[in-house]
Design brief:
Structural class: mainly alpha
Helix content: 40-55%
Shape: elongated
Number of helices: 10
Order of helices and strands: HHHHHHHHEEHH
């Protein structure tokens, strides 16, 4: 995947093209990794550990077969994964040599030691909501550190300011637009 980025000429791509290229490269790279991990998963230890029936593994070994039989495979895997904890599955997969990691809910994300150490969760005061927890920028720049300077705006908080300064609409017109429920 890194080679795909090496070939990009950032000076000739517009923003939309760049976003599309990065999305495609990441999506295709991720898709390839998922297919490869699934192949490894089916190849190593799943039948030995009696997780899946060997005949099923043989039938679904290649990705096109898994896609074709998705209606059978998804409910089977869904039921199967409920039988062990996340930690048990990770241990089983790592033992089988399958690259893996947890999918965390928000509470688990913010309990992660790296998230805590990097102070990713920031609590600020909001004028109407009280204390609000926000996600800080993960960027840590020594000369220009990213900071949260204000709470998220309330609905319509900056409407007049934007209409006046960015669009040049006068106060009389803004009042008229409000009266007509346009804004």
């Amino acid at each position: 995947m890194a080679d795909d980025f090496d070939d990009l000429d950032l000076n000739t791509l517009n923003d939309d093209e760049l976003v599309e290229q990065v999305h495609d490269d990441l999506y295709n790279g991720l898709r390839e990794e998922v297919v490869e991990a699934t192949n490894i998963l089916l190849q190593r230890g799943w039948t030995a550990g009696k997780v899946l029936d060997e005949a099923l593994v043989d039938r679904l070994f290649l990705n096109p077969q898994r896609v074709k039989e998705r209606a059978t495979l998804v409910p089977l895997l869904s039921e199967m994964t409920k039988k062990k904890t996340k930690e048990e599955w990770i241990s089983l997969l790592e033992t089988a040599g399958v690259p893996c990691g947890p999918i965390n809910d928000l509470a688990e994300v913010f309990q992660n030691e790296q998230v805590i150490a990097r102070e990713i969760k920031q609590t600020i005061s909001h004028p109407t909501a009280g204390k609000v927890e926000l996600v800080a920028s993960p960027m840590r720049l020594s000369k220009t550190p990213a900071t949260i300077r204000s709470a998220p705006p309330t609905l319509g908080q900056h409407t007049n300011e934007i209409l006046e300064s960015q669009l040049g609409i006068d106060q009389e017109t803004i009042v008229e637009l409000r009266n007509k429920k346009i804004i």
